[in-house]
Design a protein that fits this description.
- The strands form five sheets. Strands 9, 10, 11, 12, 13, 14, 15 and 16 form an eight-stranded mixed sheet that branches. Strands 3-2-6-7-1-8 form a six-stranded parallel sheet, with helices on both faces.
- The protein is an alpha/beta fold and 735 residues long.
- It is built from 30 helices and 24 strands.
- The N and C termini lie far apart (80 Å).
- The protein is 45% helix and 16% strand.
- It has five domains: 185 residues, 3-Layer(aba) Sandwich (Rossmann fold), CATH 3.40.50.300; 73 residues, Arc Repressor Mutant, subunit A, CATH 1.10.10; 196 residues, Rossmann fold, CATH 3.40.50; 154 residues, PCRA, domain 4, CATH 1.10.486; 63 residues, Thrombin, subunit H.
Length: 735
Amino acid sequence: MPTRIATSPMDISHLLDDLNPAQREAVAAPPGHLLVLAGAGSGKTRVLTHRIAWLAEVEGVWPHAILAVTFTNKAAAEMRGRCESLLKRPTRGLWIGTFHGLAHRLLRLHWHEAGLPETFQILDADDQQRLVKRVIRDAGLDESRFTAQQGGWLINAWKDEGKRPDDVDAGGNPNLRTWLEVYRSYEEACRRQGLVDFAELLLRSHELWLAHPALLDHYRQRFGHLLIDEFQDTNTTQYAWVRLLAGSSGQVFAVGDDDQSIYSWRGARVEHMQHFLRDFPGARTIRLEQNYRSSSTILDAANAVISRNEGRLGKALWTEAGRGLPIAVYAAWDERDEARFVIERIRRAVAADTRPSEIAILYRANALSRNFEQELISHGVPYRVYGGLRFFERAEVKDALAWLRLLANPADDGAFERAVATPPRGVGEKTIEDLRSQARDGGRSLLATAIDALAAGQVKGRARSGLGDLLAALAELRGMQDSRLHERIDRLLELSGLRAHYEAQSRHEADSRAANLDELVSLARSFVLSAEDEAAGIGELPAFLSHAALEAGEGQGEAWQDCVQLMTLHAAKGLEFPMVFLVGLEDGMFPSQRAVNEGDPGKLEEERRLCYVGITRARRQLTLSYAEKRYLRGSETFGRPSRFLTEIPPELLEDVRPRAQVSAPTLPQMRQRMVSDWEDQPAIGLGTTVSHAKFGEGVVIGFEGSGAHARVHVRFEDGSSKWLVLAYANLVVLG
């Protein structure tokens, strides 16, 4: 559709006056394809909405000839609202929305041509997983090997790549061939029931245009201007969708940031940013580099880290906001010390009138939240886990706790049913209902009833094998009563199949459920009976279960409350906070162990982009922390500071405490903080072994203050830990 240039004078000050030069250049660009490289905090939404208004008011483009696409309903609503404000007219009827929303709209209009019933329904993620599970079960497959979550992920991934079952080459892989049969059966079930999943919306609408050239030509003539937000997050089908609709006449205005492409695990292809200049002839590039969010110190750190990635389109963020505060770096002795330090800083900030909701703790993996949650709860600081569940509310943790509850109380029927259900053991609802009926009649527990039913030969087939495996595992775990708690839990995760089950389901490290199970082992490793539990004669396992139940029932604030925000780095994309703590910065944690071990430059570069995203969430204060020692799966591991820390220029960083290099040859990268001004005391540092007259020998794991009021945090051999004032503790330094 030809673009008409306005010839009469008009007031366009409201479209340009509040924009910087680069933003103005993008908004008022002449007709043609444009790639806008919009750095973090550079005002990309403003540019998109002002561009729409410019096209309508200055270029004379009919608003209904504009199609604008973004990735979330929230972003689409914000774009629509801003456009209404600029255009001073309702935007109802305009095609502004998400890829999936607009594809759905297209299919509703052309359901017949798309081969769908008029009343087709959309499957949400949960409904899709239930349908995949039914297909797997109907095929008689082993549900512990072929899980519904993995099946749903594979099907969506294939659709995101534009592939139907016949387009996938299984080669000689029998598992892949099985999954392709599941895919075919799933598609047939969807067709029979008139169902469409989210990935199908895009793929079906793309196929609709390919199969009906006249219809495609109609939409090409209608939509002469396509504006695409978050272009770096497009998957293969979405990119093909845009290219097909644009054809040779449409003008594409793509806004994105290759440095913030962090979703490859869900199909996003950062290379689409580079391909744009190749696939859309005559395309120009404009860079939005002025940042309106962060201090220059924070931006300089982000620029230094991301500059290590190769193949970037290239830009450097800058600001007029001034240098700001240096970036604090804290080297914790262990994960507990890290959490204690972070929460203490948060408490001081809140006491100095910083609102809790202005503070965020960001981490690479969900499993890292647990220590911070525990510390927040113990100090009564309200918090929310943004976009996720608290540690003890996570399904995989509750699955493991169900086994522990069953060990502690064989009469716990709820725990028995959960242990039977996950991972799937071939024990169907009919078998469970029969056991329930027998248990009610006999006034006995489900576990006792199951034992008798197996002995009497009343349970047949896969259900017999599944129940037999469960009872054998429980028997072995009961025989480990003299073992340490974390050893029993670690063995439980193997015998139950929970670890293998959730490892198969973990699509990427950021939401790894298996990592949360490992964190449960670490928690058990450091769990210490309270004096009250010891006095009451409560055993370690019941006390641990009580601790888990109490922590699960408190601490998390409501959505409307002013709370500290805890979230993964992936969840933090698009958000900003005055005060940010980026924690767990050790090689193997962040960057992830997979990125480090596999030696794949692409994976490591995405980890670096994730670090860039994390740094640029901070507006005024940024604190980075790592632990020199961390418990993983119940074992003590020593790490080294993340390579991303070393990529930040030292002049931008401020060590929270003075540190000296540790001389131990096994830990060449470790740093040790020393205190030299305690009165009449030998030098004591983290890791120093000391002796106390009452509590015995221990290791210094933290300290604060100086002079007569200095305190040290000592973990003693019995597992207890205490803060002691040096002036009164009379500690003897042993080494």
